[in-house]
Every structure is written in C-alpha cells, then in structure tokens.
C-alpha cells in the first residue's frame, strides 16, 4: 500500500536484525525506506545574510520522513504537542532500537564470552557485531580499538586512570579549553592532583571559539596530552581536530577528543583525524543509555594497564596476582551492558542507513534556520561564532534574553507551550564563568526535528518574553 | 501581575553583620535587629489588593509544626485549584513580587542554596523568643515565587518545628504541577527547604552553644556581670551556606 511517505525513494537497512516495519499513523504496516537526501544539501558557502536554501517543497524534509520512526515525539505535554529541542542532552530512539532491545531480552539474553550454549553464542556474536559496527562507523582500523564503557564520561576516566597514571608525572602539562564539558575536565583535575601534573586552559577568541593560535603557543615538550571537544555543546563550534592532532604529535603529546556532539551528527573518521583517543555516548546518537565507547589506537591500548579489575578482563587469576586479557577485554571488567551495546549497533545501522553526511547537511540547513530565527528575537544574545563561509555552526544555540532568567524561560516554554529546551550551565561552568553568565538556555536539534519545530519554538519564545514584560 | 510590595521598609528585619552589642544587654535578650518585626502580612493590609489570593487573606495562625503543615496544605490547595499552567505561573509570579528587597551584600556564595539550577540566596535570624525569620531572593522570578511561599510558611517558627518538616509534607505541594518529587537540580522547592532547615539547625546549635557558654561565664564571673558575651557577641546570626 502506498502512502505519502513511500514517495521518498527507498533504502535498505544493512543488518537483517534491523529490517523493520514502520507503523504509520493510519496503522497500516509498510516497508519504509528512503534514499540519501543529497538533493537536500545546502550550499556550505552560504553566509548568514543570504536566504537559507530550503529543500524543495515537493519532497518532505529528513525531519518529516524520520519523525514517524520516533514514537516518543508524538505526544502532548501540558496540553500542547511536544516540541523536543534538547538533543544535545540526549537523543530519542527509533522504533528499531526499541525493538532490538526487546528482542534481545525476549529471545537471546545471555552472558557473553563465557557460555558455550546457543543463547550465549548468539549474544556474544551480536555483542561483538555491535563492536564492529562502532569501529566501522568511525573508521577505526580494528574493532579491538573499541572499548565499550558506560558512557563517554567513563571512557575519559578510563584514559585518565589507565593511561594517565602510568604516563604522566609531576610538571607534565595537559592542555584543555575553557569550553570543555565537566566530564572532560574533572577526571584530569583528579589525575593532576595525584601525579602533580598541570592543567592549562585555552580561552575563547573574539569569535567566541577556542583560540587555536593560543593552543598552538601553549604546546611544548612538557605537553603530554591535549583534551578537546570536537563540537562544543554550548558554542556550537567545531574544532580543527586534524590540525590539533598534528601539532600535538609534533611535540610528542597525545590527543583525546570528546566527540559526544560530533559522532551523532556528522561523519567522523578517526584515522583521518589521527587522534589517539576518542570518546562518545550511545544515548546521544539514537542508542540506549548505559553504553558508550572509547576509541584508542591499538598500540596505545595494548600498553595501558587495566582500569577496573574483575571478571572478563583477566587471563589467569592466582591468589596473589593476575594476568590480564588483551584489549579491548582488558578494559571491560564484569558483565557488560549487552543488550544496550546491541541496541547501539542497531542505532548505528539506522543512522548509517540515512547517511551521516545527509544528516549533517540537513542539520546545517536547519541549524542555520534556527540561528537566524533566534537572531530576530529582541534583546537576545546567542553564544558562539556567527555562521559564515569559514565558520560552521552545528544545529544548536545557547542563548540568553536580557532580564529574563534562562530557567524561567525554559519553565514557561515547557509549561505553556510543550517546548523542551535546556537551561543551566550545560555541564560547562568554566565556560559560563568565562562568558560572564550564570546560566543560559539551549535549543539543540537532531535530524528528526523540522522547520515547524523551529517555528513553534520561536513563537513560543516570543510569547514567553511578552509574558514577562 | 501584581507589582506592589506589601512589606514596607519598616518591616525589613534581616541584617548582614553582627550588631555591636553593649554591656547592658544579655545576649539572650538582645534583639538581633533593632527593626525586627514579624513579616506576617496582615490580612487587612492586603485584602483590598488581592481578593483572589486565599493565602494572603487568611488569618494568622500560631506557629507550630502542624501550622507549617497547615500552611503548606493551604499552598497546595490554592495551587491545585489553578488547573491551567498559566494560572499557576501567574500566581507564583504574583507572590514573587511580594518578596521584600534583598541586600546586594547578602548575595554572596555563603548564602547561596546549593542544589538549584537558578541562584537562590537565603539569610536567617533568630529573635529573642528563639523563633526564626528568613529572607530569600533569586535571579529567577519563578524561584522568587517559591521563596516567598516557603518563607511565608516557615517564618516565625521554632527551629525544631522547621526541622520536622519532611519532604513528604512538601511533596504534595506541587506548585507548578510538575509532579516532581525526586531530588533534582531543578527542584528549587526542595532545595530551598533543605537550605532553610540547615540554617535552622545551625542557628539552633549556635544558640545552644552560646547559652552554655553564657551559663558557664555566669558561674565563673557572677560578681562582675557580662562574661564572655560582655563585649558584644550576639546570638542568632543566620548567615549560612552549604
């Protein structure tokens, strides 16, 4: 049966387990698919003053075609249709991921790597298949370079305790930026206190992005590690990771990249970037909570001592000592979040089916639209760089409206309009202190948001501002 | 939205620095602020202004833990009658406008309530009768509304009465209809209660220590008067923070 959605050309999910039937609002089951939306790409060279190129009205946007896959988006909150604009905090999950999780627990839940029975073998296969999917997704050289963790925060702590404790000593320097997430700052503070290392922070420049020139100046033979975000969850800016890695390696330093806000939204190639460590969380990329990963170059991981001790990460255990497994098992103590890892694999299949470049292109268009509409709001201050030919912004905006506290804005947007944004410091207190504010509001988009979501948000925002007048 | 302030300058009662006591006053009789007056809003002063605010028009009650509970129940029933979110917000902002002025010098980290996503400051003081009086402020209008409500509910109570208020008592007062019961950074209501309870505990402990010290000095120095408090240590300064 053909419905409007089927006018969009089809595509196939790569894994049989993720072949799905999508229920449309009319409750009919159709095989659904769509082609990569290269025709929706917006010219990357358009400036903020030019009209944002909209996709052709004849074809629905990526947001419209993917929304049916996300049941949670179709509800009312406080009597209004939900407009979910808090994707930088966490993403929603497509039906296929939900079905995969249920299928795991319903059909083959079993502990991995240990049992020889059928269920265990299947669970192990799917778990390791998920690892290979992550490796392929970020173009890691080898799936052994992917360590499953609880989330990106745990992954960073793993590097701090395992690599950091055995490689850093008093006087060694770690370079970060003032815009780092707390999870990319605090583990290094704890490490620095233990070993006597020094943390150096790069400020923002006049464009409100980390000053890369200053970062280069700070690099020296004392620098042992550079910890940077790929995409800022507040400023919406993108750092030149390949260049940073090159400069860091020139002085003998390693690079750890917090890719939580980039991996879900754009193609990320760890070999091309040549980073030493990279972390991301599943829940920000349509996958379940409770699973994330650390990418580490295999020779690095092989040289690192364990982080957590216990079952699974050992080779042999004696009374007074143990020998340890090779990576990645060495860093995966205890029973992992098996279903969640498999769910992450399903999320990766789903995203790959759309195409990360397609997702990125759509978000460039929608993010630009969000920025320009927000600029029209009186007395607004949007943080981060203005988008231009040479400066790209991702699809989020942190902002403040003069004389209205960010949490008041967010509360009323939720209570009176069903619009979900975030307010506070977004786990970036040093950045907010640098910007001279206590808090900001943030609207962050994902590929299932639409132009109408942005329009609804702006209207609600204007209504809320008028309410406070 | 109401913009007038019902508590006049003469009702300001909280302070930021210890008073300079003189030798003629026992610390137990020292008024912590010379202008101390209970900031209970009299029904006659506001009746003409706000017929639709049951809390403001309610008669004053003697303050006990059960009275705090009664007041919280009144808050709950008032906000529960407002079924539309916009009405709840408007009512909360009405109460926010009633907050008395807050000294800039009191907006310091040690007065800040932790656990809030907005900035909330509270100062407190104990009067001669051992009752507590609070003043609070926030950079958020909605949090200001919470401040006014909780200050209204707890003002003039004894420390132990305040300490006996539980999260359960507070839990059914769902002012914004969020249904939020768990501790969370956005739950200013709960964080504010905890902050005020900590202040109550600190003031109670300080009062008890001062009383003990006073009694000791009376025994040691009964012919000369004064003792350790003769030169002006006073009771019940309520500058606190987590």
Automatic annotation (TrEMBL), chain A:
Enzyme Commission number, as recorded: 2.8.1.7
InterPro entries (UniProt xref): Aminotrans_V_dom, Aminotrans_V_PyrdxlP_BS, Cys_dSase_SufS, PyrdxlP-dep_Trfase, PyrdxlP-dep_Trfase_major, PyrdxlP-dep_Trfase_small
Alphabetical list of PROSITE patterns matching this protein: AA_TRANSFER_CLASS_5 (PS00595)
Source organism superkingdom: Eukaryota
Residue span, Aminotransferase class V domain: 83-457
Keyword Transferase: yes
Catalytic activity: (sulfur carrier)-H + L-cysteine = (sulfur carrier)-SH + L-alanine
Keywords of this entry: Pyridoxal phosphate, Transferase
Cited CDD domains: SufS_like
Cofactor annotation: pyridoxal 5'-phosphate
Family note: Belongs to the class-V pyridoxal-phosphate-dependent aminotransferase family. Csd subfamily.
Protein name according to UniProt: cysteine desulfurase
The species this protein was found in: Stylosanthes scabra
Source taxonomy: Eukaryota, Viridiplantae, Streptophyta, Embryophyta, Tracheophyta
UniProtKB/TrEMBL annotation, chain B:
Top-level lineage group: Eukaryota
Stored Pfam families: SufE
Gene3D superfamilies: 3.90.1010.10
Domain Fe-S metabolism associated: from-to ranges: 77-198
InterPro entries associated with the record: Fe-S_metab-assoc_dom
Family per record: Belongs to the SufE family.
Protein name as annotated: Fe-S metabolism associated domain-containing protein
Protein's organism: Stylosanthes scabra
């Amino acid at each position: 049966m053909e419905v409007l959605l089927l006018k969009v050309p089809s595509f196939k999910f790569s894994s049989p387990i993720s072949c799905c039937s999508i229920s449309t609002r009319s409750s009919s089951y159709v095989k659904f698919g769509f082609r990569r939306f290269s025709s929706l790409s917006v010219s990357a060279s358009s400036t903020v003053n030019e009209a944002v190129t909209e996709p052709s009205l004849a074809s629905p946007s990526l947001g419209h075609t993917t929304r049916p896959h996300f049941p949670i988006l179709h509800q009312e909150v406080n009597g209004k249709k939900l407009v979910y604009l808090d994707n930088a905090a966490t993403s929603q999950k497509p039906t296929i991921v939900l079905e995969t999780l249920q299928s795991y627990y319903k059909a083959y839940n079993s502990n991995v790597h240990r049992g020889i029975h059928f269920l265990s073998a299947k669970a192990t296969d799917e778990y390791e298949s998920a690892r290979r999917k992550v490796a392929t997704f970020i173009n890691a050289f080898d799936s052994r370079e992917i360590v499953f963790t609880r989330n990106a925060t745990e992954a960073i702590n793993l590097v701090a305790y395992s690599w950091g404790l055995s490689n850093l000593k008093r006087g060694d320097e770690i370079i970060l930026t003032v815009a780092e997430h707390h999870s990319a700052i605090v583990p290094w503070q704890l490490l620095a206190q233990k070993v006597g290392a020094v943390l150096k922070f790069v400020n923002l420049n006049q464009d409100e992005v980390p000053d890369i020139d200053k970062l280069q100046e700070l690099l020296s033979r004392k620098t042992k590690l550079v910890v940077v975000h790929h995409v800022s969850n507040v400023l919406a800016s993108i750092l030149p990771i390949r260049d940073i890695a090159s400069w860091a390696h020139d002085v003998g330093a390693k690079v750890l990249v917090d890719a939580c806000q980039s991996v879900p939204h754009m193609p990320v190639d760890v070999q091309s970037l040549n980073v030493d460590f990279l972390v991301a969380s599943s829940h920000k990329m349509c996958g379940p909570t409770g699973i994330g990963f650390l990418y580490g170059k295999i020779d690095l991981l092989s040289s690192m001592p364990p982080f957590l001790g216990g079952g699974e990460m050992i080779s042999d255990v004696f009374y007074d000592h143990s020998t340890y497994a090779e990576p990645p098992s060495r860093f995966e103590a205890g029973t992992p979040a098996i279903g969640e890892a498999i769910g992450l694999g399903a999320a990766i299949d789903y995203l790959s089916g759309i195409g990360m470049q397609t997702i990125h292109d759509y978000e460039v268009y929608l993010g630009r639209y969000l920025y320009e509409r927000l600029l029209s709001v009186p007395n607004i201050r949007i943080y981060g760089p203005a988008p231009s030919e040479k400066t790209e912004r991702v699809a989020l905006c942190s902002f403040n409206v003069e004389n209205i506290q960010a949490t008041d804005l967010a509360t009323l947007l939720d209570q009176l309009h069903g619009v979900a944004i975030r307010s506070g410091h977004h786990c970036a207190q040093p950045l907010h202190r640098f910007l001279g504010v206590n808090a900001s509001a943030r609207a962050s988009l994902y590929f299932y948001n639409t132009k109408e979501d942005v329009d609804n948000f702006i209207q609600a925002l204007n209504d809320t501002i008028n309410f406070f007048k | 939205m109401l913009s007038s302030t019902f508590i006049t300058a003469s009702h300001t009662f909280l302070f930021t620095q210890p008073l300079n006591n003189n030798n003629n006053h026992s610390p137990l009789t020292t008024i912590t602020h010379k202008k101390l007056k209970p900031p209970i809003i009299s029904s006659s002063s506001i009746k003409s202004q706000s017929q639709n605010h049951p809390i403001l028009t309610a008669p004053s009650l003697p303050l006990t833990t059960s009275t705090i509970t009664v007041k919280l129940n009144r808050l709950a029933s008032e906000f529960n009658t407002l079924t539309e979110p916009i009405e709840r917000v408007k009512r909360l902002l009405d109460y926010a406008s009633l907050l008395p002025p807050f000294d800039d010098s009191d907006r310091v980290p040690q007065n800040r309530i932790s656990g809030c996503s907005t900035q909330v400051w509270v100062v407190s003081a104990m009067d001669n009768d051992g009752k507590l009086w609070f003043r609070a402020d926030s950079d958020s209008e909605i949090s200001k509304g919470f401040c006014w409500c909780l200050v209204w509910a707890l003002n003039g109570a004894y420390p132990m009465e305040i300490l006996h208020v539980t999260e359960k008592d507070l839990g059914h007062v769902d002012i914004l209809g969020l249904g939020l019961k768990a501790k969370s950074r956005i739950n200013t209501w709960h964080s504010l209660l905890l902050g005020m309870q900590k202040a109550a505990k600190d003031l109670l402990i300080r009062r008890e220590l001062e009383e003990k010290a006073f009694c000791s000095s009376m025994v040691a120095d009964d012919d000369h008067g004064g003792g350790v408090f003769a030169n002006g240590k006073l009771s019940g300064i309520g500058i606190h923070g987590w």
